[in-house]
Amino acid sequence: MKKRHLILVATMLLTTTAFALDPITKPLRTKVEKLPSAESITVPAGQVKAMKKLEAKEWSVPGLDLKMVKLPAGEFTMGSPQNENSRKADETQHQVKISKPFYVGIYEVRQEEYYRLLKADFDFERWRHWRGSLADGMALNFRNAVIRGSATGYELLLDNPMECISFVDAIAFCKAINERESKAGRLPDGYEYRLPTEAEWEYACRAGSKGMFALGDDKKIIEEGTLLRKRQSANRDLRSFAGCDEVSAVGQDRTPNAWGLYDMHGNVAEWCLDSYAPYQRDKTTDPLVSNDAPEKIIRGGSAYAGYEFMRSAARYYIPFDIDYYPFVGMRLVLAPAVEIPMPIKPTELPPAKK
Questions:
Q1: In terms of CB atoms within 10 Å, which of 131, 185, 190, 326 comes out highest?
Q2: Which range of residues forms the domain containing residue 193?
């Protein structure tokens, strides 16, 4: 049975072949309420004014209930020291300045937020994980059935983080929010909703901490105890602050960092704007790496990764157009507008010079 389950999972991840649809045997929660127009959502004028002046400590995207908290401008050491457990060679420590305050999502973007904005008319009742997650960019884990290895549909898991989305999907989600909020006059001058830069992500994750994890009271236990044992034991101890068994509802039974941000370690990895490149030692201000590489940075580890990928400094990169990884999601920021570095697909790269 175990072998059959492994084959099933591999098939779901590696092929887009459409299988025969099984009949629905249990009623589903298939209705996702469509988001009303931005102008029709009333927000107290004082709250909007404070947010636009970057004076509000917290903000919630109107209609989506996407809660955000303001982080101050500041400086920090990005990367990891050479003696850090599981450190990689491309994590060279360097000083980074974040020059302006910005808002960051307290939670990873949930499936309900994504569906209400972009997929409210999708026929969830007829969907099956055999074909939908790969062909349509739908979340692989948005039904209990997928987690249990069954082809039969169950209720949607709308509080789970949105996953199985490509970098392009994430950018489209941000663009849709910006269009709504700009039309409603609820964007600070020069700011936009977007994915964080890699530097903004690590700054938010660390929340002033300097160790392997931003854990507060758990830091000593994890760094001095857990990591001396085998990986399986390490992951078991990480359940107090990260989703290490399976992707689960955002923030569920876990501990936020010092800035109140949940799941910066674990649950799903999160897209960043940066193209991949090794760090330089020079001090930088508001860095954003843009090049022709088709890979984009993801951060934070996931429920399917070991503790070494959950470290505050851990970096990983994947092709920007992959849309079938159930361990990749996103977290939004409301931050200074930047030119989004869109990759070039490998097939579209110019020929190498002779």
A1: 326
A2: 48-124+165-344
Our measurement of the distance from residue 12's CA atom to the centroid of its chain's CA atoms, rounded to an integer in Å, reads 21
Query: What is the SS3 assignment for 103?
Result: strand
**Rounded Cα distance, 300 and 2, in Å:** 29
Residue 24 CA, chain-centre distance (Å), reads 31
d(CA 277, CA 192): 25
Does the pTM of the predicted model rise above 0.90? Answer: no
- Pairing of β 102-105 and β 295-299: unpaired
In sign, the C-alpha dihedral spanning 43, 46, 50, 52 is: positive
Q: Does residue 38 belong to any structural domain of this protein?
A: no
DSSP state, residue 156? B
Residue 106 covered by a domain: yes
The answer to the question of residue 267 being in a domain is yes
Q: Examine residue 111 and state whether it is found in any structural domain, yes or no.
A: yes
**Closest to 314 (Cα-Cα) out of 254, 269, 251:** 269
What is the distance between the alpha carbons of residues 309 and 231, in angstroms, rounded to a whole number? 12
Strand arrangement, sheet containing 66-71: 58-61, 66-71, 102-105, 333-336, 191-194
Q: How confident is the model at residue 198 (pLDDT cuts 50, 70, 90)?
A: very high
Q: The domain that contains 289 carries what CATH number? A: 3.90.1580.10
The pairing of beta strand 94-98 with beta strand 74-78 = antiparallel
pLDDT digits (tens, 9 = 90+) for 111-136: 999 999 998 888 776 665 554 444 45
- Give the Cα separation of 241 and 324 in Å (integer): 25
Written as one letter, the residue type at 332 is L
The C-alpha angle with vertex 131 and arms to 31 and 158, in degrees rounded to 5, equals 30
* Average pLDDT score, the chain: 81
Pairing mode, strands 333-336 and 58-61: unpaired
